[in-house]
């Protein structure tokens, strides 16, 4: 089975696909993990250290949750910038729409993962005054666009299995939950991702389509309650999505799939009619010790040279400030990045995922001033060739 799957995948890489290329530089900003709680600020930090965890070995030990002030500062930077049509850059914010309900789980003896929708508030012990208002203010200003990440970032089946088994893993989960922290992924990769259980056989790691469809349906419902709209763009937690995920997304109205950095593939439609976007720039000052602003600018220039959109990946941790100030450096670098793009590419356009979807459907687009047109060029490509091209 594994051999046949690998042969099939290799054959897909060699088949020609219709991809979309553009005659003007395009920039999209995509960002994951919004709304997801992590380390419960300094109180949670001290509680976990008292329980014996040595936190601080990696930046993700200090992933917490954005504040209204974090969002206000980010909004201010985005509002300082405009593209050639006068439009501000817009951050596609992928939301985890529920968090663990630690109070209910404690009452049940930590046997099952119970979830609290984001629209119903945060778990006990968490305090973020004005957070939903700050999300909505950015959306109203046109610089934030909510998109779907999932109901949970981890695989609930994997978490419950380990929570109910005696041993070190259950102890770690219970210690974290007591402190109001759901997990720290690099310390426990066995929790997997929402649609992917890493400890199953290779061909069984993705959850069955009915299970995926159920989780996605719940997430879409909570998203609609939270933002009074339905999501059109989605990014699977950990980028772990398969054909079943794409099919379930399409059945729930998702039109755009955000894929992780890797091969710089042009936008193209997948088998389920979902537009596939591949991130081309990893903009992660908080977590990448080798982060280079100059390298990001060079990658953007190469994308423009080849007619590809520069799709920037920047996770929410980069804007957090309560436990460790990741925000200041990120905003400084983002401001400089956008300034350089605007100065070197006078015809740049800032798009949302949804704008790009409409663009490839129509084939061209008027700018807001109506004085310039953007044309879409359709060309055949193979994944194997595209990986070598940029």
Shape: globular
What structural category arises from helix and sheet content?
alpha/beta
Low-confidence stretches: none
Write down the Rg: 21 Å
Helicity, as a percent range:
25-40%
Mean pLDDT: 93
Count of DSSP-assigned helices: 13
H/E element string? HEEHHEEHEHEHHHEHEEEEHEHEHEEH
Strand content: 15-25%
Specify the biggest β-sheet: 6 strands, parallel
Oligomeric form: single chain
Please count the beta strands (DSSP E, at least 2 residues each).
Answer: 15
The N- and C-terminal alpha carbons lie at a distance of 33 Å
Give structural notes.
The chain is an alpha/beta fold. It has 13 helices and 15 strands. Strands 2, 3, 6, 11, 12 and 13 form a six-stranded parallel β-sheet that branches. Strands 7-8-10-9 form a four-stranded mixed β-sheet, with helices on one face. A three-stranded antiparallel β-sheet has the order 1-15-14. The two termini are 33 Å apart. The mean pLDDT is 93.
What topology emerges from the helices and strands here?
Elements: H1 2-14, E1 17-22, E2 26-34, H2 41-50, H3 68-79, E3 91-96, E4 98-100, H4 102-107, E5 115-117, H5 131-140, E6 144-150, H6 156-163, H7 168-178, H8 209-227, E7 233-234, H9 243-251, E8 256-259, E9 268-269, E10 275-278, E11 281-282, H10 293-305, E12 310-313, H11 327-344, E13 349-350, H12 353-362, E14 364-366, E15 373-381, H13 383-389
């Amino acid at each position: 089975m594994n051999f046949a799957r690998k042969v099939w995948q290799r054959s897909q890489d060699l088949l020609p696909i219709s991809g979309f290329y553009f005659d003007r530089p395009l920039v999209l900003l995509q960002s994951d993990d919004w709304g997801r709680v992590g380390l419960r600020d300094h109180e949670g930090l001290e509680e976990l250290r008292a329980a014996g965890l040595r936190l601080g070995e990696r930046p993700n030990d200090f992933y917490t949750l954005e504040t209204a002030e974090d969002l206000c500062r980010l909004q201010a930077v985005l509002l300082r910038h405009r593209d050639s049509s006068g439009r501000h850059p817009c951050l596609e914010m992928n939301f985890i729409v529920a968090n663990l309900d630690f109070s209910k789980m404690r009452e049940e003896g930590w046997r099952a993962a119970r979830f609290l929708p984001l629209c119903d508030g945060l778990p006990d012990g968490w305090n973020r005054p004005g957070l939903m208002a700050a999300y909505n203010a950015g959306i109203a200003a046109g610089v934030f666009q909510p998109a779907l990440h999932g109901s949970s970032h981890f695989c609930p089946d994997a978490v419950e299995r380990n929570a109910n088994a005696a041993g070190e893993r259950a102890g770690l989960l219970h210690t974290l939950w007591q402190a109001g922290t759901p997990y720290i992924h690099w310390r426990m990769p066995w929790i997997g991702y929402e649609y992917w259980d890493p400890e199953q056989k290779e061909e069984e790691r993705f959850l069955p389509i009915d299970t995926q469809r159920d989780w996605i349906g719940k997430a879409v419902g909570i998203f609609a309650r939270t933002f009074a709209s339905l999501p059109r763009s989605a990014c699977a937690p950990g980028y772990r999505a398969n054909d079943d995920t794409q099919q379930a997304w399409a059945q729930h109205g998702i039109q755009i799939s955000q894929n992780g950095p890797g091969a710089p593939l042009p936008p193209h439609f997948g088998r389920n009619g979902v537009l596939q976007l591949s991130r081309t720039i990893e903009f992660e000052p908080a977590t990448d010790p080798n982060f280079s602003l100059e390298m990001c600018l060079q990658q953007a220039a190469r994308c423009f040279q080849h007619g590809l959109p520069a799709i920037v990946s920047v996770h929410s941790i980069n804007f957090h400030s309560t436990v460790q100030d990741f925000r200041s450096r990120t905003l400084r670098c983002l401001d400089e990045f956008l300034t350089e793009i605007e100065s070197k590419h006078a015809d740049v356009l800032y798009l949302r995922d949804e704008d790009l979807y409409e663009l490839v459907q129509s084939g061209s687009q008027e700018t807001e001033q109506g004085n310039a047109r953007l044309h879409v060029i359709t060309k055949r490509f193979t994944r194997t060739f595209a990986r070598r091209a940029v």
